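Structure in, sequence out. Go:
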């Protein structure tokens, strides 16, 4: 079983030689969390079609035996306001239910796509309730704290405060946001307490592009205070979710050092 209160894990990756490599790595090193991200491109990466029902049952059994938690990341361009996006989101929720995952990540809309987006969440929220799954809406580099608050306020008005939905706080994307450039802690501080953070993606950049650097190898290699402050702020908000290291570096053992330092802060 995962010995830490806040599970730390990694994610499938297009850069992996085989789509199962990141998962097997997580198993070998007793990570407490693994995220299945449907982002296959050509022969690289992973998507739902690679796991038939028997594969899904086997994954669920393995997770129960090891104590590993699963989360699922919908395809990056999934938007429930269009039919194709709803199909992708339903596939994500169905896969999550099949492998006993408790949470599905989907990207927040850009400001120009917000019209009709909240209405379009009616069906996905119903599917999530039926499967006992939480939807985690992730801030992208184009998402500001104001955008987050506006969407979540509209969701509360329409679906109530008990809706199975919250924010996936993406540290690297917050660092790229024009309103909080190079200040991901400031992004989090700008969110009202009513925005419930339920999941976290951890990666670094230098404020110029979405590099997905391993934690403590970018700016935090020089000064880790920002990561420490971020963890402190999350816990102060009552955060009880996991932390996904969103990269597959060379060598992948870099993830072990990052996970160990992050666990140290969480302890």
């Amino acid at each position: 079983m995962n010995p830490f209160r806040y599970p730390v894990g990694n994610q499938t990756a297009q850069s992996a030689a085989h789509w199962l490599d990141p998962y097997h790595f997580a198993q070998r090193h007793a990570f407490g969390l693994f995220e299945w991200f449907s982002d296959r491109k050509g022969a690289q990466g992973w998507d739902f079609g690679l796991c038939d029902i028997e594969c899904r049952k086997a994954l669920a059994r393995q997770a129960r035996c090891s104590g590993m938690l699963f989360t699922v990341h919908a395809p990056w361009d999934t938007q429930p306001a269009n039919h194709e996006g709803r199909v992708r989101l339903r596939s994500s929720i169905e896969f999550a239910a099949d492998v006993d995952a408790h949470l599905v990540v989907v990207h927040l809309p850009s400001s120009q796509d917000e019209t009709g987006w909240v209405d379009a969440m009616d069906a996905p929220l119903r599917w999530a309730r039926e499967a006992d799954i939480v939807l985690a809406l992730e801030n992208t580099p184009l998402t500001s704290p104001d955008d987050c608050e506006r969407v979540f306020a509209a969701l509360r008005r329409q679906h109530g405060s008990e809706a199975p939905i919250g924010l996936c706080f993406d540290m690297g994307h917050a660092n790229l946001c024009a309103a909080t450039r190079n200040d991901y802690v400031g992004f989090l501080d700008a969110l009202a307490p009513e925005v419930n953070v339920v999941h976290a993606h951890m990666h670094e950049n230098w404020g110029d592009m979405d590099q997905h650097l391993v934690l403590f190898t970018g700016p935090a290699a020089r000064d880790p205070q920002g990561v420490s402050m971020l963890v402190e702020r999350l816990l102060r908000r009552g955060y009880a979710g996991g932390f996904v290291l969103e990269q597959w570096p060379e060598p992948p053992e870099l993830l072990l050092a990052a996970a160990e330092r992050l666990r140290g802060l969480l302890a």
